[in-house]
Structure prediction request, 467 residues.
Amino acid sequence: MDYNVIVIGSGPGGYVAAIRAAQLGSKVAIIERYKTLGGTCLNVGCIPSKALLDSSEHFYNAAHTFKDHGVVLTGLKSDLKQMIKRKAEVVAQTCSGIDYLMKKNKIDVHHGHGSFVNKNTVSILADDNQTKQITADKIIIATGSKPIAPESFNYDKKRIITSTEALEIDKLPKRMVIIGAGVIGLELGSVFARLGTEVEVVEYMPSILAGMDKDCGKELQRSLKKLGMKFHLKHMVKSVESTSKSTTVLVRKRDSEDTFELKADYCLIAIGRRAYTDKLGLENVGIQTDDKGRIEVNNHLETNVAGVYAIGDVIKGAMLAHKAEEEGVLVAESIHGQKPHIDYNLVPGVVYTWPEVSSVGKTEGQLKKDGVPYKSAKFPYKALGRARASMDVDGMVKVLAHKETDELLGVHIVGARAADMIMEAVALMEFRASAEDMARICHPHPTYTEAVKEAALGATGNRSLHI
Prediction:
């Protein structure tokens, strides 16, 4: 065999799996079909979107809140081309960091499209149409996902776009229609809304962020409306058409046949992502997939073919970079005889709008559905001295605990720095802490984290001190 381990895909799951396997003594190769490493997350997902989110938030604050802080500006304008340029620089720096990590860990990098010949052999088709084959004892599939774009939406990558193309727009649109009120649609929608684009969101479900706790969706929607974003909930898209300069989206309510048109410069399709296993040659080795094209795996993330594993977006579960990373470590360590474990209930989710949204554990809806006795409490950001000082008063912390044992079951945060704050809940829940434990921890003042303590106090028996 040429290698101990081959990893197909260099996103967060793939490159982390490769690094961990190399650390444990394996000779490792990684295959990436694109010119740069890092996958969707680093190139056209997590990293570039956060760069634009930060840039647009700076502009929005300069235009709307700096004056209240005593900072007076004149002639303020946005430069979207510079924002895109900075974004590209952030991506390049991050991807070059992955190149360094591959060299540091003596991992061979092969560029081209990988596909199975048999369970131990992968064929690599390079851009110049040259083909080579490499072999390994173990193979890890980490090929990620692609945006879902139904044929009826006439996705043309010019006016009818997905997140990939939205990250390259360098002339500010006057109007944009977004199909889907999930994480991607809301994050990118908020970027353009902050800069002055009129944004309308069409969502089939009755609330935004349908997979998260309902209170999170309600709280965030109030904040996004302040940006001028408009929402058409419980609506569905009949068709999308485009010209060289505009798009027309035909929409109707779920319970009505009456339709209306939304016209815009761009239509952004953000209705989810699908497992990317195109031309991977799964049929050559008999690897099984489900009805959504996701690869079937067991508790060790091994496919039905011994020695072949799959991680990240190509298998069931949340499509999150950090979930893929944990799975990459799990597989690498399992291959080397260790016994790692992932508690999927404690994989946090984050939405990088402003205010941010973060969540871990069960939602209130899930607890009701499962018949779990629970108690809950919320604490508003507006009651925090730190939030008033920074003018970030939108948001809340919600704590769910078992009604009888007081064990923490779920924590949901909307507010400034929610993405960082959720780790307190993750750490406590990993050790099966109670709401009382959370409430008894001394939190520094003044901080946003005091809202976590106050919500926990409320969940232990209406003991919140500052409301």
User: Anything to note?
Assistant: The mean pLDDT is 97. Residues 386 and 447 are 5 Å apart (CA to CA). The chain has three domains: 3-146+274-342, 151-271, 346-459.
